[in-house]
Amino acid sequence: MNPNDVQPVLPIPAVYLLHGKGGSPDGTVRKLQAILEQHWPGLDFVRPLMPHHDPKVPAEISVRDILQLHIPQDSFLVGISLGGLVAAKLQEMGRDDLQVMAISSPTWADGVALETQVARRLAFYSTNDSVIESRVADWPGLACFQRNLDWLTHDTDQHFKYIARLFDWFIEGMLPEWIDKIRRPGLTRQEGDEIVWKCMAESRPNVPWDKGKWPGGRPRDFAEVGEAMQAGRRWDIAWGDWLHEFVHRKNAQCLAAEPPAWFSAERRAMMAGTAEFFAHLYELPEPSWVNKPEYFLAEMEYLAYCETETEDGEFMAFPPLSEDALYRMKAKSPKEMLRRNVIFEARSLTVL
């Protein structure tokens, strides 16, 4: 195995999730997208309807169809069952720039058969899978990286946790090193975040906005974050106080006020992205102020959650060490941030 053949080509312009035979874009791949999108909110996901949604349509029709999709160069295709075979075959038909992960896929079906090994073609299957067991023996010679996982059944819905790990680890560039830990009992960082996001989404009925101050003088909106700082509170404390109270209440009034004009343009853009993100996440009215031109930066900026004032001698921020690391930070940032040229990872908006 050439190690470079298993490393992702970044940036990834789009992730295509291809369903299996008799499936649909609204089935298994939609559920998978919901998980992957939480891990990588900055990525663009596409779920095309494949001709083989009709079980009577042969695989070769789907191969011809996907050739017409004009998939951007270096896109990442994740195919389930027949979707993985179709994606892998596309690599052999002049699209070896594509990156493919085939999950529980055969190496041949109908009139389609894989013939050559291609870089960045990953295959994960099981010889115990009764649906494809007679059609997986050639994967070691056809994929640049493959694993026969005895526990991987054809019921993909039962394995989302581990499929997400394969996806995450490939983008992180750590798949070869971590693959043998695929079923470790502990949580990955992303899986821990999933639990936090789920807790944050829990409703807290009858938690009012209140006309008076909140306990401890915690800011109710972005304007009061500025007031708290003018009264001597550090940025990270004032911001964290607001974030905790907002998640507790999920009240649209917490997003209604603009940040103070004396905040930096970068911080104001980040706060506008936060308001837009939470409005979408919790189905609240989007504040009109977030679309003002002043909340969009001319150039991309990296912001750290714990950013404090520059005179704070204890403040430390570790910027990305490479272009790939910077891209991964972008991929973990909500689109509401990225469209403002702000890199701010979604996990920085989580609270316990």
What would you say this structure looks like, in words?
- The protein has 352 residues and is of the alpha/beta class.
- Helices cover 34% and strands 11% of the residues.
- It folds into 2 domains: 3-186, Rossmann fold, CATH 3.40.50; 215-349, no CATH class.
- It is built from 12 helices and 10 strands.
- The chain has a 6-stranded parallel β-sheet, with helices on both faces. It has a two-stranded antiparallel ribbon with strand order 5-6.
- α2 (59-67) packs across α3 and α8 packs antiparallel against α9 (235-249).
- The longest helix has 17 residues, at 265-281.
- It is elongated and about 70 Å long.
- The two termini are 42 Å apart.
- Mean pLDDT is 93; it is low at 305-311.
Uncertain runs with pLDDT below 50, 5 residues or more?
Answer: 305-311
Helix content: 25-40%
What is the CA-atom radius of gyration, in angstroms?
23 Å
Biggest sheet details: 6 strands, parallel
Q: Numbering strands along the chain, what is their spatial order in the largest sheet?
A: 2-1-3-4-7-8
* The CATH homologous superfamily of the largest domain: Alpha/Beta hydrolase fold, catalytic domain
Q: What is the N-to-C succession of helices and strands?
A: EHEHEHEEEEHEHHHHHHEHHE
Tally of structural domains: 2
Q: Provide mean pLDDT, rounded.
A: 93
CATH top level label of the largest domain = Alpha Beta
Number of distinct helices = 12
Short description, anyone?
The chain is α/β, with parallel strands linked by helices and 352 residues long.
